[in-house]
Each structure stands twice: as C-alpha cells, then as structure tokens.
Write a structure and sequence with these properties.
Largest sheet: 9 strands, mixed
Helix content: 10-25%
Order of helices and strands: EHHEEEEEEHEEHEHEEHEEEH
Strand content: 25-35%
Radius of gyration: 22 Å
Number of strands: 15
CATH superfamily of the largest domain: Pseudouridine synthase I, catalytic domain, N-terminal subdomain
Mean pLDDT: 91
Number of helices: 7
Length: 262
C-alpha cells in the first residue's frame, strides 16, 4: 500500500477530526514504531508501520460502511449550498473519509440508505446488470387492487415512455382515510429510475403519500435505528452484500463491524 500522511491515516481510523488529530500529534500522544512523533504530515505505511494513539494500536481501514435510516426532508447528496444532506447527519470523524450515498432517495422518502466510500461496491450494487432488489413500503391514496398488481408484474409505461421492468406489488391493507381509501403496499424493484415508485403508481392512476425503503439486496433496515441515526454494517451484513454482488471482490472490513450506532 502506498505511504500516506499520518493525520490522514488517523482520520480514516476514526481517531477524530483533522484538527483534533493534529493537536494530539503535536502534544506527543501519537507514536510510530515506538517513537513519539510531532509531525502530523509525516509519511507512514499503513501496512508496515505500527501506529499508536494514547498507547492503543491504531488499525487502519480503507473503507467505511454505514446504514442510515434517512429521515424525510434531507437530500441524498454529499453537499448542497441550501439543503441539508445525508452526509450532514454523520459525525465529523466519519465525514473525513469522504463517504457518499449509494443511490438516491427522494427528499421526502425515508428509510434505508447505504453510505460508504467504497466506489467499487457502490457500482456493483447500482449496476443494472446485477438487478439488486430494492424493497419499499408505501402508503398510496386509492384502493390498490389485483389489476394494479398485474400491471406492476408486467411492467408499466412511465410518463416519459419508458417501460419498467416487472416489479412485485403486494397489498398489505386497504383502509379508510379522511379523503378516501388508503392502501398499505410493498413494492420490490430491480432497477432504479428517477422517482420510479411514485411514477409507477401515477401510471395506474394512484398517488404515493408516503414512501420508505426497507431493503436493498440482502441489507435490511435495522428496526431499532431511529430516523436520522446510523450505524456501521456488521461483518455478517458485509458478507451478504459481497455475496449479492459476486464479483465485487472479497469481503471488506468496516471500521467497527459490530453494528454499533454512531
């Protein structure tokens, strides 16, 4: 592995923000190969050099993998001059590793969002060739019926003329709402077009009033994770993701790998 700056290695290991790390190094709290160092910019080899922070060994990991329960009102982007982004929900020490959301959820859509800095895995998960399932729970204005289920199973034509791949539609409940019937449904897609779930229901004359993604491939939203919170993926979840996109390479290590909330 190529040599890198000491402060970058420590940041990628989750030791703190760059400013906190530089201050700690200058205070002599960091050792490299048994010697206290004072230069945060010194070059180190992540594989060969032994780095210690306050006497504890630092384990460098190149990639991070977070499961976020995205709340409504936040956009799926790394930065925006006006809107709050999903990256703004991360702690400073987790943002320094330049993570990004894998795919997008609309501003008002909630639920599962994978955030990582592993471009290769992201590409494999989003590749149309892989047909990775994306599962959504929706509340729909109108009574969703068997005709809608059959339409989704055949693929529907969207407003721009695109005909979707077949999708699974399951009606869990139809209930009375203030302005008419409301349907609780589950939709499974194998592609990811812009506003696809909403546009598919519009194509059959209905309107989505709430949308939440609950799964992406084998990765399922942790029910104990409140909206706006996130945690690192477990090693079991990482193995399942790698298996789902076989060809993305061997299982990678997350920074903690224990499913801890951040």
């Amino acid at each position: 592995m190529a040599r890198m700056r000491l402060d970058k290695l420590l940041a990628h290991a989750g030791c703190g923000t760059r400013s906190e790390i530089k201050r700690a190094v200058r205070l002599g709290r960091v050792e490299v190969n048994g010697l206290a160092v004072r230069d945060p910019g010194m070059a180190v080899d992540p594989e060969a050099d032994r780095v210690f922070w306050d006497g504890e060994p630092v384990r460098y990991r190149e990639y991070v993998y977070f499961m976020l329960n995205k709340p409504p009102g936040v956009i799926s982007a790394t930065e925006d001059p006006r809107e709050r982004t999903v990256i703004d929900l991360l702690k400073p020490e987790d943002r320094v590793r330049d993570p990004f959301p894998v795919g997008r959820l609309d501003k008002d859509t909630e639920g599962l969002l994978l955030i990582t800095n592993d471009g290769r895995l992201a590409h494999e998960l989003l590749s149309p060739r892989k047909h990775v399932d994306k599962v959504y729970e929706a509340v729909v204005a109108g009574a969703v019926d068997d005709a809608d289920v059959r339409a989704f199973a055949s693929g529907v034509t969207l407003d721009d003329g695109y005909r979707t791949m077949p999708a699974d539609l399951v009606v869990r409940d139809v209930r009375d709402g203030e302005d008419g019937p409301l349907s609780d449904v589950t939709v499974t897609l194998r592609e990811g077009k812009f506003h696809q779930v909403k546009r598919m229901f519009e194509a059959v004359g209905k309107r989505v009033v709430r949308l939440r993604r609950v799964a992406m491939g084998p990765l399922r939203l942790d029910p104990s994770l409140p909206p706006g919170d996130y945690r690192e993926l477990t090693e079991e979840e990482m193995r399942a993701l790698d298996a789902a996109v076989s060809g993305a390479g061997p299982a990678r290590e997350s920074n903690a790998g224990r499913g801890e909330k951040r």
